[in-house]
Write a structure and sequence with these properties.
36% helix, alpha/beta, two-stranded antiparallel ribbon, eight-stranded mixed β-sheet, 14 strands
Length: 231
Amino acid sequence: MLLFLAATEGELAPLRMMLHGRHPGYEALFAVTGAGKACAACTATLAFASLQPDLGLLVGCAGALPGSGLDVGDVVVATRECFGDEGVETRAGFLDLRHLMLPVARRGGRTYYNEVPVARPARGSIERFNRRSGGLFAVRQGPLVTVSTCSGTPSRAAAIERRSGALAESMEGAAVALAALLLDRRLIEVRGISNQTGRRDRESWDIPAACRNAAEAILWIAEGEAVGSKR
């Protein structure tokens, strides 16, 4: 059983359409978490606990951070998640949860602060998808960051990028990853780039393309995971 999660129905809609009438070889369930960390954590925790999926797949759109080199429509597969604004702003700069000695979780002998692990797709699946997609958009792997306040100014975007080392930001990823960690569920996160952070130029955004491309990539990954689980 695979559980697809997204913050909004609009981010799940391309997945539903692509799966309609298909028999993918696995049971697909869907959960809309709502926007932001609190909604995402609550919904994901309830879904993981009640449904006990073999794999969670978080999909949606994200804003590319300035140094990422990502274009609108490109896709990022998360290698880790980060709570980007949990901490304290001081005159000397931002202090994260590790500096404050405030962990978000302890699991398996490890202590977690701002960074939260995610599962990675089967080896080679990203390369095979890039060949299959014919270069219409790039798919890259890298860290993602989750914020409560999105980066609508250059200074804010630069600060989030500097402290997290992430390629793109969203408002839910780390919260869902934390729920998965605490409930011993595997989670893969895939985000399509809908916009560049740093300035709110809505004319340059393309949320439908970001969601559509992320859906294509995550379905490819889901198929590989389902096949691998049967071996």
